[in-house]
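We keep the chain:
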Amino acid sequence: MRTWNSLKKEWLKDPAFKKEYDKLEGRYALIDKVIGERIKRKLTQAQLAKKAGTKQSAIARLESGNVNPSLNFMEKIATALEMRLNIEFR
């Protein structure tokens, strides 16, 4: 059975795939951070949602990558995780 990393390595050889992957890299890094921090703090999606003043379904959509979250929403998530949101251009 192939691993995600081996598949990704193979697919990234395709210039069209790499271009699309690179466009989404920041979004998925953000999602990965939110999920990781939520789990590290032993919070369920419902618990994080309550702390952020939103619904569990909004957290689920964020974590699935099916939404383009607003800056305001991400600030609420950061505050609920007792973190600071930092946005930068590189």
The chain has a mean pLDDT of 93. The domain at 4-80 is CATH 1.10.260.40 (434 Repressor (Amino-terminal Domain)).
